[in-house]
Amino acid sequence: MKFRARIVDSACIQQFAKVVATIAKLAKVVAIRFTLDGVYFIVNDDVEFNMVGVSEEFNEIYLEVAISNLASVLKSTDQAKAVKMKLTKKQTPCLTFEIELAPLTANARTVMHDVPVKVIPRRMWANYTEPAAGNYSIEVALPSLKVLRHMVDKMKNLSTCAVMSVSRDGEMTLSAEGDLVIVTTHFRSLPVSSIGEGGDVPAQSCTMCQ
């Protein structure tokens, strides 16, 4: 079993670090699934969860890792020129990171980190199968996550719940109700992909978030 990857685009490096930092707020330990065309971070808190197993022909790797350790390593990638990640065998299996930093002098600088991992055996892969998205009628591209997060942070001071509504015309509203006021934010002209045909697609879909 072998794995190695190298990221040379600084924007991609920062995006990877932000994704890991976000996941670190959701769970202490996650499973990482490596395939030929993607990397998956899986939070599976339900030990009884079970789904159809993964085909034997898939060339994949599943690892369990303390996500806080991974997030800590990636904090040092702010000035990275490239990040190489590979699966190594030391006293314990590790994800070894080689972080190439921008040189301060003529000499190159490389920082190495070993993050201990646990290899998940194939017989347990079914526990980490990606869940189905479920039935839905409207698919909408979200607005800027930075703006959306800012609005949600403000609304949580009013209520523990918010109502999200999406229309076929690409308008999304987010509202929260307090004791004395109702606050609603409108996002217009969002890219929309409608799932279904004719009357199967409602003019507007609404859900409550907590």
In short:
The two termini are 42 Å apart. The chain is 16% helix and 39% strand.
Can you walk through the features of this model?
Helix 1 (10-24) packs antiparallel against helix 2. The radius of gyration is 21 Å and the shape is globular. It is built from three helices and 13 strands. The protein has helices at residues 10-24, 67-74, 145-155, and strands at 4-7, 29-35, 38-42, 61-66, 80-89, 93-101, 109-119, 138-140, 162-167, 172-177, 182-187, 192-194, 204-209. With 210 residues, it is α+β, with helices and mostly antiparallel strands. The strands form three sheets. A seven-stranded antiparallel β-sheet has the order 1-5-6-7-4-2-3. Strands 11-10-9-13 form a four-stranded antiparallel β-sheet, with helices on one face. Strand 10 (172-177) and strand 11 (182-187) form a beta hairpin. It has two domains: 4-127, Proliferating Cell Nuclear Antigen; 139-193. The longest helix has 15 residues, at 10-24.
